Amino acid sequence: METKLSPKRVEFKFNEYLNKGFELFKKDMGTFIVAFIFMMILSIIPFCSFLAIGNFLKICRKINQGQQTSASEIFDFEDFWIYLKLFGILILGVVVLETPIFFFIPKDNGDTPSAFFFLYLIAFMVVIFYITLKAYYIVSLISLERVKSIKEAWEISKVMSSNNLFMIFLFSIVVSFIGQLGILACFMGLIFTVPLTYVLQYVSYEDGLQQIKINETEEIGNVAE
């Protein structure tokens, strides 16, 4: 059945994502762990990091839907060019935002940075922080819903994350904390907890995407009635 996306603010189900994420991880822990290892290997190439994450999400969806999959699918380069473009836009954006900072850096080591330096640095961090939260769904839109335009993915993600920035931020902190719990097991536990964090994020992405989907076949049927 054909589906289309109808961007809207989604309901961010914090606790549900944690519960379902743990259950999904237990469903095929071995594949998730191996896929994560492969993801880290591919991410050694900086401009392949988004591609690796996107392919991990595809594996998550297949396992979630009971489909056959393999950890080696991390090395699928089908979406390479759009993620290369996304990486380039990200780098360009950071360079443009960082450039003014150099004008405020003291020329002599003994000089004290001006107030403008600190103000711009704070503003820079706030902007990066805001954009990161608003772009929360971009990778999932590209990999899971085949959105081929970065601009379109950005516009959809902005709408989906509207009024959810605090919840997304809090969820990210909790997920990050869960990932770091592996350190308590002399770092060996990271091989379990870090892959789990990506599965938890996938569950949040998947639910958000399902909330904005419209089944065209059912919509035509309803209109006909």
Overview of the structural elements:
This protein has 225 residues and is mainly alpha-helical. The protein has helices at 14-27, 29-42, 49-64, 80-98, 101-104, 115-134, 138-144, 150-160, 165-180, 190-211, 216-224; strands at residues 3-5, 213-215. Strands 1-2 form a two-stranded antiparallel sheet. α3 crosses α10.
Summarize the structure.
The protein is mainly alpha-helical and 225 residues long.
Strand content: under 5%
Number of DSSP helical runs: 11
Distance between the termini: 19 Å
Order of strands in the sheet with most strands: 1-2
- Oligomer type: single chain
Radius of gyration: 20 Å
Helix content estimate: 55-70%
Low-confidence stretches: 217-225
Number of E-type strands: 2
The coarse silhouette is globular
Largest sheet: 2 strands, antiparallel
Order of helices and strands: EHHHHHHHHHHEH
Overall pLDDT score: 87
Which structural class best describes the helix and strand composition?
A: mainly alpha
Q: Strands, helices and their partners?
A:
Elements: E1 3-5, H1 14-27, H2 29-42, H3 49-64, H4 80-98, H5 101-104, H6 115-134, H7 138-144, H8 150-160, H9 165-180, H10 190-211, E2 213-215, H11 216-224
Antiparallel strand pairs: 1-2
Helix pairs in contact: 1-10, 2-3, 2-10, 3-7, 3-10, 7-8, 9-10
Features of the shown structure:
68% helix, mainly alpha, 225 residues, globular, single chain, two-stranded antiparallel sheet, 2 strands
